[in-house]
Fold this protein.
Amino acid sequence: MNDPAQPPAATDGASKRIALTVAAAFFMETLDATIIVTALPAIGAGFGMGALDASLGVTVYLIAMAALVPAAGWCAGRFGARRVFALAVGTFTAASLACGLAPTFEVFVAARVLQGAAAAFMSPVGRLVVLRETPKHRLIEAIGTITWPGLIAPVIGPPLGGLIATHASWRWIFLLNVPLGLVGLWLIMRLFPRRTDAAPTRFDAAGFVLTAVALAALVEGLTRLGGPQPGSPATLGLLALGAVAAAAAVRHARRTAAPLLDLRALAVPTYALATATAGFVSRIAINASPFLLPLMFQIGFGMNAFQAGSMLLVYMGGNLVMKSATTAVLRRFGFRRVLTVNGAICAATLFGCGLLSPGDPLPWVCVLLFAAGMARSMNFTAVNTLAFADVPDESRAGASTLGTMLQQVSLALGVALGAMVLGASQALRGAPAVQLADFRHAWYVVGLLMAIATLMTLRLDRQVGMAVSHRR
């Protein structure tokens, strides 16, 4: 039953502190997902295996996270968003400790599965708390605050992981999460209000199974596309299974009175464009960049891992500088103009990366990376804010869960797309290994994809999102 004595809406100061707490949890989660990549050789050596075998720790994390995201909205409604978010942060912290102390690889993999499961609840439930506790006139600032982790962590994660693995122990990558998680738990219990949601419906077990199978099969299939046997029967079978299960899940959601995966928000044009069409395509293109850049600098330019990671810090600098201006830009020019102009800039920087050569002056390379980072920051903030600009309050829980799920899929697709183009280019050239020419082709493909996404935004009305942008 609903509690008739709900706490009052959070004040501006309280909502800001809540957004900062959620952002800190998001940062811990996102950093953990990216910092492990450069440490895989050290992790493999610690367990007496190669880096490729150790990459199972990355794969199981992504699969667990993607498969369980759809259950987050129902759990938040059934048990309360505050309780679920606190449990997710606590579980993530405990799993981090288990990863850092794992005596065998099997224990490590099991702990990574637990981490991915906890992360699946942290993102959508944390975003839901922020949306509920933030007054509409502060929504841009709040969304901008919780967007920071997705901008910074993927950039600093790889070089930081390499630094820790080289000068300390890879186990510290996970052990550092423990004090952060404990502080986060204390803040959640202190700052987050106790709210009683509407009486939850029955758990949609069929929808959960179909969605989980679809996401797990698609993520694993896409991951294998970047492996040594992209056309193997197992890979194709997983992709086929994922496609069939996804179609069945959509059909089930449309025919069920209370589906686990609520598709009603897709009827809102701005939400559909920001999450399922233009925004989804642009995320695929942009998410390929952190995968392609360090590989290109090492394989194509001959840099070592630390040098390549240092170049990504320039990319991060563009993110940071632009982040402080995104709110003002959106309020001055509106969503349509920002998404079209910034989308064109973003596409141009992706094409520009394909034109880089080892002999190019370093300042020119840095300027291009800085501009690419600025465009990335502006795109993420604009798309994330537009997605919820017109979603009614009663649909926000389902919209948050669906949006998070689609973000995870776009992340996997971005990496898979980069790997697929590199492999296809290498095969067509008949080369024994990936070379700089293959990276050029990959950049051209993702640049074209970003251009297509930008053209999609031209359908937006010039006044779209006025309720949250307050455009003058």
